[in-house]
């Protein structure tokens, strides 16, 4: 779905499909260099990271094994609760493996810092993070992120996997959601 089909639901397109694709290709080259010895296991965080994972994995010029977790820190709304629940766990044993977490967005950082520690505690050899988007001014915890697509302002964004109440994930671009859409919250 294209931004122009969504009328006044969106206030601004932050990054177009083409920009996202080009930036992801740059990140893939960095990842290939950093993991030249041994490809990492890509761990996608459902559901938001589905688009990033699909595009990143195909861009990488090595065997990209994928696994998935579903965690929840948000309800249907737009605010982080800080409470993380595992809704779906990994299928694979990550003991001794290099793990690259693939995420759509880092907002407060609470979800990712929890997830990183959780994966480290299972005996992963290394755990790094790749996120398409990050809101630096919204961070509440310090967290090292090795691969960042774009830093964005503190606005609620949708598209490229990111939803509001499960809608807008299939928007091709990343755009700011108009406040009137969620002002009834
Ligand atoms: P934290 O605050 O833990 O949040 O870093 C990470 C998760 O929160 C969701 N999130 C968003 N989803 N638009 C969305 O559609 C946003 O602007 C946004 N900010 C945070 C997302 O699921 C992410 O994994
Ligand atoms: Mg997410």
TrEMBL record:
It is an enzyme of class 2 (transferase). CDD domains: PRTases_typeI. GO terms for biological process: GMP salvage; guanine salvage; hypoxanthine metabolic process; IMP salvage; purine ribonucleoside salvage. Its cofactor is Mg(2+). One of its GO terms (cellular component) is cytosol. It catalyses: GMP + diphosphate = guanine + 5-phospho-alpha-D-ribose 1-diphosphate; IMP + diphosphate = hypoxanthine + 5-phospho-alpha-D-ribose 1-diphosphate. Keywords: Coiled coil, Cytoplasm, Glycosyltransferase, Magnesium, Metal-binding, Nucleotide-binding, Purine salvage, Transferase. Residues 19-164 form the Phosphoribosyltransferase domain. It holds the Pfam family Pribosyltran. The keyword Cytoplasm applies. GO terms for molecular function: guanine phosphoribosyltransferase activity; hypoxanthine phosphoribosyltransferase activity; magnesium ion binding; nucleotide binding. Its EC number is 2.4.2.8. It is found in: Cytoplasm. Residues 10-37 form a coiled coil. Pathway: Purine metabolism; GMP biosynthesis via salvage pathway; GMP from guanine: step 1/1; Purine metabolism; IMP biosynthesis via salvage pathway; IMP from hypoxanthine: step 1/1. Belongs to the purine/pyrimidine phosphoribosyltransferase family. This is Hypoxanthine phosphoribosyltransferase. It comes from Leucobacter denitrificans. The gene is hpt.
């Amino acid at each position: 779905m294209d931004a122009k089909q969504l009328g006044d639901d969106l206030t601004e397109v932050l990054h177009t499909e083409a920009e996202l694709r080009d930036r992801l290709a740059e990140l893939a080259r960095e990842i290939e260099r950093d993991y030249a010895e041994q490809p990492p296991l890509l761990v996608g965080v459902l559901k938001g990271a589905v688009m990033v994972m699909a595009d990143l994995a195909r861009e990488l010029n090595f065997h990209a094994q994928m696994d998935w977790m579903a965690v929840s820190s948000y309800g249907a709304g737009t605010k982080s609760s800080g409470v993380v629940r595992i809704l779906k766990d990994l299928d694979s044993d990550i003991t001794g493996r290099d793990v690259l977490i693939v995420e759509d967005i880092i907002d407060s950082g609470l979800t990712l810092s929890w997830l990183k520690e959780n994966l480290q505690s299972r005996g992963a050899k290394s755990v790094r993070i790749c996120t398409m988007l990050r809101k630096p001014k919204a961070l509440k915890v310090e967290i090292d992120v090795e691969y960042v697509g774009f830093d964005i302002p503190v606005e609620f964004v949708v598209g490229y996997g990111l939803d509001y109440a499960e809608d807008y994930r299939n928007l091709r671009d990343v755009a700011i959601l108009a406040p009137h859409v969620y002002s009834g919250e």
